[in-house]
Design goal:
Helix content: over 70%
Number of strands: 0
Order of helices and strands: HHH
Radius of gyration: 14 Å
Distance between the termini: 36 Å
Number of helices: 3
Shape: elongated
Largest sheet: none
Strand content: under 5%
């Protein structure tokens, strides 16, 4: 079983990453020089790692935790899709 604290930390980190990725995507779609191709790619890699970590944690979580983790993973995957498409939906 995953500990409550570890699950909460993972959920918080996932939420922060999605917010950061949304900001990066908005900047990139406005073609701001502040966002480089490298930064865009690194953000995509962070999203992928988070999705994998959430998936690992889902397998050892209780049903309530699994639900929260699955929702967070869906948000991360939605953000990944936005990056692939190249615009914010």
């Amino acid at each position: 079983m995953s500990t409550y604290r570890k699950v909460e930390e993972m959920l918080k980190h996932a939420h922060e990453l999605v917010e950061f990725a949304d900001e990066q995507l908005q900047l990139a779609t406005k073609q701001q020089p502040a966002v480089s191709d490298k930064g865009y790619t690194e953000t995509q890699q962070l999203l992928e790692r988070m999705s994998v970590e959430l998936d690992k944690m889902i397998h050892s979580a209780n049903p309530e935790q699994r639900d929260a983790l699955s929702r967070a993973q869906q948000q991360v995957q939605d953000c990944q899709n936005d990056f692939i498409l190249g615009f914010d939906t």
